[in-house]
Amino acid sequence: MLSDNAVKPEELAGYCLAIMGQPFEKADAIIALTGDGYGRIEEAARLYLRKLADTIMVTGADSTLYKVPHLMAGDFTEFLVKAGVCFEDIVIDDIGKTTPGQARSTVAECKKRGWKSIILVASGDHMVRAYLTFLKMFLKERYPIRMLAHASYVPWFAEDNNLAVIPRERWARFVKEEYPRIIRYQKQGDVASWQELEVYLKEQKL
Fold it and tell me: Which of 1, 136, 152, 196 is the most buried (most CB within 10 A)?
């Protein structure tokens, strides 16, 4: 059995690809995490306009952006409506400010509205940790969900000329910055283990 505290590089890459390479398919709701300004929100709107879901949930407060300090989830409503999203199809959560908090709010909304499938929109470099965090919360609550990952911009393993970053550099940054966080949060019980991820992906045929 694989160790949660030390997986081989090829195993780690395999898990990342299994998350980042998930298919496009219709879901009950699109869950857009705040944290990078409007990038994730724009991508969520594009998915909505492609009719991949009838609802967009924006969750979290983005207090880290120096250009837009203390930006809240509700502040994105006008932007989404201008992008073509119906006001009635927007769900706002300003409670969950950390990734576990956003996951907790999402599980509560899924229970309330009966959502059985979601598309999780996060930044490419942070998607793996976000996906594992949300998966752990759904497992803790024993709520069955089909969760599909969708990055708001090109992930680490793909060409990205706009950011002038080659895949090797993106992967190195992921291993240096995100992977240690994942391990730390796995030990704290806030992030799904690699075994839990593997079981979930097999059950969902992803």
Answer: 152
Q: Looking at 22-26, 47-51, 67-71, 200-204, which range is the least confident one?
A: 67-71
Residue 159: count of CB within 10 angstroms of its CB: 9
pLDDT band at 38 (very low <50, low <70, confident <90, very high): confident
Six token digits for residue 176: 């240096």
β 29-33/90-93 pair status: unpaired
Note the pTM of the prediction, 2 decimals. 0.89
CA atoms within 13 A on the CB side of 180: 4
**DSSP secondary structure, 93-115, as one string:** E-S--SHHHHHHHHHHHHHHHT-
The two structure tokens encoding residue 44: 């969520």
- Residue 13's pLDDT band, with cuts at 50, 70 and 90, is confident
Question: Is 7 in contact with 186 (CB distance < 8 Å)?
Answer: no
Mean pLDDT, rounded, for 101-109: 95
All structural domains of the chain? 9-204 (3.40.50.620)
Dist CA 77 CA 65 (whole Å): 18
- Whole-number Cα distances in Å, 63 to 36, 37, 67: 10, 10, 10
Reading the block at residue 52, the tokens are 């991949």
Strands (E) across the chain are located at 29-33, 56-59, 61-62, 71-72, 90-93, 117-122, 146-151
